[in-house]
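Lab notebook, bench 4. The sequencing result for the construct came back, and we need a structural model before the next group meeting so we can plan mutations. Quick request posted to the team channel:

Model the 3D structure of this chain.
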Amino acid sequence: MKQQTKKRRCYYVSPTQDPEVYGGYVPSLVTENEAGHAPLIGNGDPMSQPWIWGKTLDEAEAFAAEKNTRKGLSEEDVDNIIASSMRAQYAGESEATK
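Done. Here's the predicted structure in token form:
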């Protein structure tokens, strides 16, 4: 039986998002080897709110870095997780064009 390993996840703040939409920068959760990311904007419930981690990109990125460090992830780990997600996205797009 193949042993399952838990995929690592990290927080990421997209610099291309419009902070005016939610009143600040919203982090996303990126999962290793899975295409895309999940913005933490709430679950659609009227009582849920987006996670705002800073009014500026610098504030939000610093908070994400702190959270990732608390999860035991180095900057290199985070870069590798994000790169694996981008590779998975590209691979999926490549397969769709065949």
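The chain is about 40% helix and 10% strand.
Will bring this to the meeting.
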